[in-house]
Amino acid sequence: MGNRKERHILALSGGKDSAALAVYMQEKYPELPLEYVFIDSGYELPETMEYIDRIRAVLNISILPIGGASIKDRKDFKWWLNKKNNYLPSPQKRWCTDILKLRPYNEWIDKNCSGQAVHSYVGLRADEKTDRKGNLSGREFFYQHHPFIEHGLDYQNIKDLLESSGLGFPSYYKWRSRSGCYFCFYQTKREWLGLLKHHKELFWKAAAMEKTDPETGTKFTWCDDMSLEELEKNKKIILTEASLPVQGKKMAPGLITTISSLCKKNLSDPKLLIRR
Ligand code: SF4
User: Fold this and answer.
1) I want to staple 251 with a disulfide (CB 3.0 to 4.6 A). Which of 52, 223, 227, 255 is the partner?
2) Mean of the per-residue pLDDT values for the chain?
């Protein structure tokens, strides 16, 4: 790296893992001149913004917001959606991450760290799939670090870090399992209904982005098999289905007791034993 100035940057997502990484880095490497940024997609949940404020206050750090579309630059998600002929992003066509998260971060680095060596710290956990490597920038003198993977920290360690620091989990974890845009397509139907319950206006804003191609009749919906309007109409059925046990998943203790007591009853029934 020679005499090149070095920058150490931790990008917060508004989720638990990057928050726990900020706690960890402060505790383990207090001498490191870390800079904190928050890549705002412009479509974050209010709870995410509150959590960023909380991180600022609890850890006593400055967090620079980057990204989001400024009034001057209207190329926000809706602008891109229009350009992509209403083709909503999906796990197969995840074009949103590039324009809402990676590009703003890379542009900020190019503008603010020109000619410098950049160390970027990412909160991937040791128990996560390792094919997710975060921002793989093609730029020179860019070094990505995964401290949790390097030191074998898993979900329980992250939970302990957040609890011991007094930061806790973001409040949206009560009804949603991921940080990110309010319309994120990784949400389950139950989580969409959580959005409806907690932020009705955001649910309907997401619903308004769903379109039907007038020529082909193709429907662009956030969920594979129904629109958000249909989801709302069927919410009772969906919530009931979501609470039923799924094969391979843990059953409610009460149900396990019921099934096991029925099994015992059948095994002790001589007629059933004869039939076997
Ligand atoms: S949070 Fe979801 S919708 Fe937003 S950029 Fe990431 S993948 Fe796309």
Assistant:
1) 255
2) 85
Which residue has a Cα nearest atom 7 of ligand 1? 97
Domain positions in the chain: 6-174, 189-243
Distance 70 CA to ligand 1 centre (A): 19
- The CATH topology of domain 6-174 is Rossmann fold (3.40.50)
107-112-116-119 Cα dihedral, nearest 10 degrees: -70
Pocket test for ligand 1, best of 94, 95, 202, 205 (most atoms within 8 A of CB): 94
Is the pTM above the cut of 0.85? no
In sequence order, what are the residues at sequence separation of 6 or more whose Cβ sits closer than 8 angstroms to the Cβ of residue 20?
Answer: 123, 148, 157, 158, 161, 162, 167
pLDDT at residue 70 in the model: 64
Q: What is the mean pLDDT of residues 259-267?
A: 32
Residue 98 CA to ligand 1 centre (angstroms) = 9
